[in-house]
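U., I forgot to send this yesterday:
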Amino acid sequence: MSDFDLKDVKKLEDLKKACKEFFELEKPYGWMIEELANSFYEKDSEIQGNYLTAIGLFCYSEAIGREIMHYRHPGTSRNRFSGKDCFNFFLREYMGYGSILDKWQDVYKWYRHGLCHEYKIDGPTTTGVFVYYQDILAFQGMGVDTTKGILLSEKSSKRMFILLPYLEDFVKGIEKFLKEKSGM
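Result:
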């Protein structure tokens, strides 16, 4: 496995090429990455994503968190752990979202639950799901960590989801778990 970097990806073929080597990962992880890569499309020569891509990323984050928790606690039922606990565990321990989860206790409710059950990110001002950060300097000025895909700001009531940074962290999280599992 190599460094998975989507920061400069601007074309759909580049996104799929970056994901390609991960398609061969053990099942179901490779399938998840392939399905996610295939959910992006191109319009007006730009990569586009949609709410279904976002829902998939959040549901897969919860599912992988459940698998890892089950792996760490052999002999226990997968159902022993709540969906929120599994989701938060994967984001915190494997994707590097601990500071966001520490600051914002309801990320699961607003994002994963909101998208899956209400087809929107919950919140007073939700501006949606995007592939890239539209105006990085403006978001940095609001105190947003623009290296992460979950956008929350104390200076603004905006809640957004940015697909490519989250996908990158998601794949790196899977890599981290597989290295841990293989004893590397």
